[in-house]
Amino acid sequence: MTSLLDGAKKLVSRGTDIGTRVAGLEAAVRAARGRLDDSSVDAAAEVVGRASSRLRLSANHTVVGIAGATGSGKSSTFNALSGLELAAVGVRRPTTSWAMACVWGSEGAPELLEWLGIPQRHQVTRDSMLDTGHEDKALQGVVLLDLPDHDSTEVTHHLEVDRLVKLADVLVWVLDPQKYADAAIHDRYLKPLASHKDVMMVVLNHIDTVAEDRRDAMVDDVRRLLDNDGLDSVPIVPISARHGIGVESLKNEIARRAHEKKATKIRLDADLKQAATQLQQEAGATEPRKLSKERVAELEDALSDAAGIPMVVDAVEKSTRLRANRSTGWPAIAWFTKLKPDPLRRLHLGFGSSVKELTSTARTSVPEATQVQRARVDAAVRGVADDVSEGLAKPWATAVRKASVSNLTDITDRLDTTVADTDLGVDKLPVWAGLVRFIQWMLILSAIGGLLWLTALFVFSYLQMDDEVPDTPSLGPIPVPALLLVGGVLLGWLLAFVCRWLVSITARSRARVADRRLRGGVHKVAEEMIVKPIDQELQAFYALRNGLNQALS
Fold first, then answer.
1. Does residue 395 contact residue 37 with C-beta atoms inside 8 Å?
2. pLDDT by residue (tens digit) across 175-230?
3. 27 and 37 fall within a common domain
């Protein structure tokens, strides 16, 4: 990144924001990776790497690549421009096996030539000892490349041409009057490079072999073909490299572009635009919808149902009723409720760590989701993904759907863990239940005391020992022992009956609290395992779109 910024500063000083655009495409590539077609993403990544590398190199040189078919006079044109017999000239077969480079101005050139991959033995500096002493200042700052013949039967020649065509700042295509309409060059190079027309020139060589009265018509025909290729603004320079006709005009055009020092920026701009446009076409321009609250609510409801939350909430209410009734009911009857199993204990829930430690293998005993429940979850997940990706291009819609189900296989265990770890708020009974329990025991003890008192009176009466028994106190017409017995029983039953109403209110309240807490846990699971992956895809889409906008600005 430091190198990229350093390179960007070089071009910013010349009035361009190319570094910012490269950074934008780089961000788009990161966002598109794994989502859009690999070939397009790799091509864009290659552009980023190539552009950032070029930004670090000499900004004072313009790389001009001369390309053409066998016999087009490409190497003759190279020699005519350089003023030296550097490239071998042939007619019947390819003679250019490797690119030859001629450099005007050596400062900063070695690093640039190394980046271009030109072997040192194929490099010539125009003002070196090989020169004739007549240094050509017009092409100062030009790196002129003679590329291999693009129609060579050697595969390595094709690869070398394709590689250097991507690296040259300016491309000069040399056409032969007899083969200028050849589909090989139009379909493979010219038409695909229509977006790079501002850094291209076409040379119609061997113009001397064409009758003078037919030259303009031939140039017009070449113009027609280039227009059909989308290269309407590409200049056509008719020359004869052998006789020097038009060579000076070609040299002046190359010199003009080199002196303006805009060719590098224009070439990189074209590369960036082409790569960014390709990604933009694949990604589509439709913005994704925001996550629908209604869809997410449906999803959470389906997950809650699959996790058995309605069953757990029902167990919380029943367990609270059972234990509270046992605590507040008449002790003589409430004792028998201990024989009834607690619904929460059957599910291994709600009573602290002791139950969880005993059931570490199966955290809960909540039944597994039924096929219908699983189908409902699948439909809800698909509904969220489809809703948010409606209108998106197929690759991105697919990425959203994949993200939505990426954690679906683990969600059952996660829901079970969430249910097991949720504090259901049933560990302790309310304070009033403890007070009622104390009162019930006092009443039962009073009833027992009254019963024992009455029993003693009966025994003394039966043994005719009434004279030795003190008078039994009374409350009005009712003896105190009878009052204790009857009152203890009746008040206990009455208190138990009244408490059933309080128990019902408490059970429903705790069930609501448990339901809220459990659904809160499900909300977190849905957020982390389904909503968040989808949102990450949406954020990646926005990152891609913003990066492409920056690259295309």
1. yes
2. 999 989 988 899 999 999 999 999 999 999 999 999 999 999 999 999 999 999 99
3. yes
C-alpha dihedral over 107, 108, 113, 119, to 10 degrees?
Answer: 60
Percent of the chain exceeding pLDDT 70 equals 85
In a domain, 111, yes or no: yes
Residues 68 and 124 in one domain: yes
Residue 278 dihedral angles phi and psi, to the nearest 5°: -60, -45
How far, in Å, CA of 538 to CA of 531, rounded?
Answer: 10
Reported as a pLDDT band with limits 50, 70 and 90, residue 452 is: confident
Same domain (yes/no): 498, 488? yes
Q: Which range marks the domain in which residue 465 is found?
A: 293-552
Question: In terms of domains, do 256 and 269 share one?
Answer: no
Q: How many domains does the chain have?
A: 3
Question: Whole-angstrom Cα distance, residue 323 to residue 434?
Answer: 11
List helix spans (H) across 284-410. Answer: 293-306, 309-328, 331-334, 343-346, 353-358, 371-388, 394-404
- Does 289 have pLDDT greater than 60? yes
3-state SS record for 125-154: ECCCCCCCCCCCCCCCCEEEEECCCCCCCC
Q: Are 68 and 20 in contact (CB under 8 A)?
A: no
Supply the pLDDT for residue 330: 67
DSSP code at position 472: P
Question: Taking a C-beta distance cutoff of 8 angstroms, is the pair 480, 451 a contact?
Answer: no
pLDDT band at 349; cut points 50, 70, 90: confident
- Mean per-residue pLDDT for 50-62? 91
Beta-bridge mates of residue 203: 174, 237
Phi-psi region of 57 (alpha: psi -120 to 50; beta: other; left: phi over 0): beta
Model confidence over 492-505: pLDDT tens digits?
778 777 778 888 88
Chain mean pLDDT for the chain: 84
User: Are both 299 and 323 inside the same structural domain?
Assistant: yes
Question: On the CB side of 101, how many CA atoms lie within 13 Å of its CA?
Answer: 28
More confident residue, 279 or 98: 279
For residue 62, the cross-strand partners are 142
Distances (CA, A) of 287 to 26, 101, 290, 388, 549: 21, 48, 9, 9, 14
What does the alpha-carbon distance between residue 532 and residue 538 come to, in Å, rounded to a whole number? 10
Q: Which residue has the tokens 């291994």?
A: 348
Q: Does residue 223 belong to any structural domain of this protein?
A: yes
pLDDT at 79 over 50: yes
What per-residue confidence (pLDDT) applies to 9?
A: 43
Domain assignment present for 135: yes
Q: Do 372 and 256 share a domain, yes or no?
A: no
Residues 34 and 181 reside in one and the same domain: no
Q: Average pLDDT, stretch 40-46?
A: 95
**Residue 355 CB partners (closer than 8 Å, separation 6+):** 345, 348, 349
Q: Which amino acid is at 274?
A: Q
The answer to whether residues 176 and 310 belong to one domain is: no
Q: What is the DSSP letter of 186?
A: I
Task: Please name every residue paired with 420 in a beta bridge, in sequence order, or none if there are none.
Answer: none
Residue 288 lies in a domain: no
